[in-house]
Structures are given as structure tokens and as C-alpha cells.
Amino acid sequence: MQTSIVMQTPKDIQQKLYDALEQIEPFKHCALLSFPDHYNVGDHLIWLGQVFYLRKVLNVDISYASSIEKFSPEVMQRRLPEGAPLLICGGGNLGDVWSYYQRFYERIVREYPDRRIIIFSQAVKFRYPNRLEEAKSVFNSHPDLTIFIRDHYSYAVASEHFSSCKVLQAPDMAFALSGLSGLKSDYKSKSDVLYHCRNDHEFNREFDDKGFEIDKMKTEDWQSFRFKGSPRVASVAGVKWLFQYSWEQGQILPFEWVERQYWQRFHRDLQYLKDTPEQHLHLKSWMFMHHGVYQFKKYRLIVTNRLHGHILATLMEIPHVFLANSYHKNLGFYETWTGDVPYCRFVKDPSNVARAAKELMSLT
Q1: Contact 108, 72 (CB under 8 A)
Q2: CA 338 to chain centre
Q3: What is the pTM of this model?
């Protein structure tokens, strides 16, 4: 199911997200589960989008929040009022591609038939029919399970197989961050290009950067993977990176550190992340978000094979080339929500990457 409404800006997509989420019956308290306790910036963007939507838009109390690893049924039940729903973090891990998450989702659905459960925007991918059958059995047995789906391929699968659930379509929850202060990039003052490249089993091996023929291009994934978080002055790698970058830019001070202090201490929207039982989780995601934002702000153009590389570049309004991954996730999202964004080009054929990059550079 493709959208027929033209969505050219992050705000357009955010409004579409909010329209979809309005189909949820109101609530005042909730648990938010499956915090991304790892270094992938994209999952932290999703988490923050959910927190900002719940706190800033709905004024909901997040009574309990947890990663899969730290989940405590006893603490959650003690804090959560009767009738309050369980919310599961969105992402691209509903299915057997990332089975660790799927097993947790099925556990929650199986163990809490008395709670309303909402799974935020997901992509669905099952490689093995037996795993799909297991998921169908668990999900369809729950009396009140809502699943938001973020692309039309996944929507077709979920609608067919999770027939007893309420299956709805919505953009990625990271679009709740649209309009956040400090996001927009001054890319026109930059000259370099970033190939933001994942290299796991979602990587489409046809897209080797050696064949791109783009000048002044650097290839790297989220820098948070390299630093196992964000570069800290307390770490040798952090010191080396901060001062090397400052020297190359002709800066006397490491401006990332200065900007990070503002982001972590004085940003006007920090109020929505604090004064909650697990505020340290939200602030951790906030740190990761800044790390991704600062990484992208250094470039005039982004080439990315990560969905949330595309989403962050869209939120920051940076011209970018979006590449196909190893299955439908990237193309499906682009076709469903972001195909009208004027500063993005989706590329399926590696031979067209340089042409798309040149076209975007000429528009700016």
C-alpha cells in the first residue's frame, strides 16, 4: 500500500506519523520496552522519537523502561497501573533476521494477555516458514495486540499472517524528532562526501565503494561502532580523534566537545527526557543521537545503505543517495514514505551512484 499524499519534508512525514498514531486509544501510563543497549545510532533515534512522542505530544508517564537484557517483570508490574499498555520499541527486527528481538517480542505477547500491547513501527522479514508460523500462533492468540508497520512490503505480510491483530501503517518513529533544535545542517559550506556504509548481513555486496568514482569521499559506518559509544576525552582513541579533526579543520578547540556540552546540558528539549524512572536510558540515546548528527554535519553529501542514515539525513535536510540493502527494507520504506523528498535519490544499480550524487550536488 503506497501513500498517495505528497510528502516532501520531514514535517510532512511527521504529521503522517502522528495521524497514524492517533488510532491508538488514549492512555496516561505505559511501559516502554526493548531499549537498544548497543551502539547503533539508528535504533537510538527510534527510541528518542518514541520518548518525545509519549512525553512531549501525549504527556504520558513512562512508568517503566528497559532493555531486553535488564527487563524485570516484577519491577514493571509493581510500577505499572492496571490497564496501562506495554509498548515495544520499533525498528527493523520483527522476524527472524534478528531473532534475538523476535523471541523477546513473542515472550511479552505470550506472558501478558491481560495487557494491551503496541509494537511501534517495524519492518517485517521472515526467511523461514516455520518461524513465521510460530510468530503467527503467538501474535494471533493475544486479545489486544496492535502492530505498526513502516513499509508496504511488510504491511502485506503482517496483514495476511497476523490477521487477529490490529495492523496499521506508519512511518518510522524517528520522524517524531522532526523540528528538533540543532538538527538542520549547513551542508553548503562543506565539500566532502560520506559513504555511510554498513557491512553486516544487510549489506548489498554489489555496492562496493571502489566503483563509485566520487571525489573526496570517505567510507565509514556510524562512528559510535568504532568508539564503542562516543569519543571520550578519557579514551586514547577519543583524544586522538577529537584533536586530529580539530587540527585538520584549523580549529583551536575540539568543537564537537563544546557542542556536545550544549546538547547534553542545555538543549531546550532535555526536559522531556528527564524526571522519569529510567532517564539514564533516554539520555544515553540522546548522546548517541548527537554523535550521529555531528558525524553527518561534516559532509556536503551522504551516500548511505542504512535506513536510519537516510532518515537522519532527511531530518537534517542533507542531500543524500539512498542505496538498496540486501532485502526490501530500504526500498520499501522509500517507496512508502520518502520518495518525494527532493534532496534524496534512491539507487538500485551501483553504476548510477555517481550520477545521482552529481545531480544532487548540482541542485545545491
Answers
A1: no
A2: 14
A3: 0.91
**Orientation of helix 279-297 relative to helix 41-52, angle to 10°:** 120
Contact 254, 263 (CB under 8 A): no
Assign residue 44 a region (left: φ > 0; alpha: ψ between -120 and 50; beta: otherwise).
alpha
How many CB atoms neighbour CB 181 within 10 A? 9
Cβ neighbours of residue 88 closer than 8 Å, sequence gap 6 or more = 33, 34, 105, 108, 117, 118, 119, 120
Radius of gyration of the chain (CA): 20
Between CA 282 and CA 305 the distance in angstroms is: 26
CA distance 27 to 328: 34
**What is the sign of the dihedral through the CA atoms of 316, 317, 321 and 325?**
positive
Read off the pLDDT of residues 94-125 as tens digits, 9 standing for 90 and up. Answer: 999 889 999 999 999 999 999 999 999 999 99
- Could you give the CA distance from residue 344 to residue 342 in angstroms, rounded to a whole number? 6
**How many CA atoms lie within 13 Å of 228's alpha carbon, on the beta-carbon side?**
4
* Structural contact between residues 45 and 292, judged by C-beta atoms closer than 8 angstroms: yes
Phi-psi region at 137: left, alpha or beta (left = phi > 0; alpha = psi -120 to 50):
alpha
Q: What is the pLDDT of residues 217-262, one digit of tens each?
A: 999 999 998 876 655 544 555 556 555 655 555 444 556 667 777 7
Using H for helix, E for strand and C for coil, what is the string for 142-199?
A: CCCEEEEECCHHHHHHHHHHCCCCEEEECCCHHHHHCCCCCCCCCHHHCCCEEEECCC
The Cα 309–Cα 315 span in angstroms is: 10
Cell of 363: 541542485
| Domains of the chain from N-terminus onward | 10-177 (3.40.50), 187-363 (no CATH)
CB 88 within 8 A of CB 142: no
Helices (H), the chain: 10-21, 41-52, 73-79, 99-111, 129-140, 152-161, 223-227, 236-248, 255-265, 279-297, 307-316, 329-333, 353-363
Which region holds residue 34: left if phi is over 0, alpha if psi is between -120 and 50, else beta? left
